[in-house]
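chain below, 444 aa
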Amino acid sequence: MSGKTLVLLAGMCALLTAGAGGALCAAPDPGNAKSGEVTIELKYRGLTGAKGEPRPWSFTGWGASNEASLEFTKNLNLPKRKALYPRFRSNANVEGTELALELDGDKSVALYMDLNGDGKCSPNEKILPSKEKSPMGESALFVTPDFQVKGKEGKDIPYRVFLIDQTYDAGGGNLDHSVMFAPACVWEGVGSIDGKLYRLVLFDVHFDGQFTKFGQDRFALMPEAEYVKALESGYLPRERLSRLVPIERQFYTLRLETTADGAQPAKAVLTKSESPLGKIALELKGGEGMKGVLNSLYLRGREGDTFFTLAGKGAIEQALPVGSYQVESGAIGYGSANPREWRTDFQNGSEITVTAESSCILKLGQPKLTPSVVKQQDRYRSDVKPDKAFKKGDDIYCSPEITGMAGEKYGRFSRMSADKVPDPSVRIMDANGKEVASASMPYG
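prediction:
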């Protein structure tokens, strides 16, 4: 890593609450709810991939096999070389779900999935490619019908998934397949507060059908008008599910209730938070003349169920409920000409405390490089401490640790502009300052 890379981030960068990802509430009937409490009825919705629906946030793949190994796929009797058997993993007791992709040349023409787990192919278990456009360019999109998964209480939960089959050049004139999955269902509800409609959408992340795990699953909270525009644009912002959520300038506590049998989400209840507010401001510091901007900052509450996403620029303070927060991760843009020349990510910063009495200042940047060096043979041993001196001829393993003012650990540094920069280099000196080894790092 070059010296230029280590000199980063100048100026002040303020924390602004992410707008579209932050607000939902529905005004309850005053005669049926407690004062200050908002209730949203949630309903299941299976997605089809059509325009105007929430799009998948990301896809996950677990590889595929060329051989049928289980009862369902063997009974299909698909010709060898005309079938692919994707692996599908889940945390909802559908680990054994069997799938097969039927191929015609390089194209997948049908998906077979044992939706009911009986080992036989029912009519609805042969799924043809969707007519909807794949969200991943030139690839085949399949959408399963609803099937049942087991929730945490052992009860059946409706569920469906997207499957995308994308081909790529495997070299030697051969094409290979990359098969990936995404949940194809949400739980959602609409209501109003102060005369404005808001929408809450819950997204599952781990293919377990729960949708309600704070800190793990995702949600979108925004005015209905903004939600419609987001869908039209093809990008719907979403955040990690948090027990505390901001609505306009008010913070609400979010409680998610399930049906009586505990199987499915039923309603979201928002109650005005009584926690006093404090203030937090951010300083980004670096070399003279550098320009920096906070692309994102994720704070996690001490209890692990409260998360805030902050971003922006300028010297403005942001209000947050009082309490202790861990700097979990973030991303910063920076450069000498403009803050879009470079990008760096960080994680695992220190804990900060927001109080009502004074403003909490979070200082980031001014990263320092500390090399951690051990013998190559000891690199995987947890009980070995880094050393500074080695014998001539020793094979060593060097891993740089780059730490900022808040204890944040910086990882990848990426050049965002097309300007050519010198390759980073490493030099190793002896006790007298004489160079004993050096090398460039052409890949950064």
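Confidence is low (pLDDT under 50) at residues 1-33. The CA atoms of residues 40 and 373 lie 55 Å apart.
thats it, cya
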